[in-house]
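Data card: per-record layout.
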Amino acid sequence: MNTKISGAMGEAYVAEYFRKKRYKLLAMNYRCHMGEIDLIVAKRKKLSFVEVKLRKSGGVTRPADAVSRAKQSRLRATADIWLAQNPMYANFETDFTVAELYVGTAGAIEKMELIEEAF
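The structure for this 119-residue chain is written out next.
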């Protein structure tokens, strides 16, 4: 499976999950010079910056293992820029969530795990 296609599929899957949980999708694939944030969602006064990671089911490593310290630093810097551009969210509680998706051999998502406040 093409990683760009599977990544877009995974992001759409996670966005739909949050929509069903009554979160508002504020941004998808937000990009700036510091990096990219897959999803930015809000509910009440909580703002979540979501990193979506996919792996084949039965793999050795967890998807969240791919979110290195360097990646975390870029995500924080990117989130700071987004917040500066969107000051109406300055008083929201923020967190970084990693959405782990496990994909089966047929390419379908078999399982999702959310790690809230991942870092």
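Known properties of this structure: Strands lie at 24-32, 35-43, 46-56, 93-103, 109-115. The longest strand covers residues 46-56.

See the next section for split statistics.
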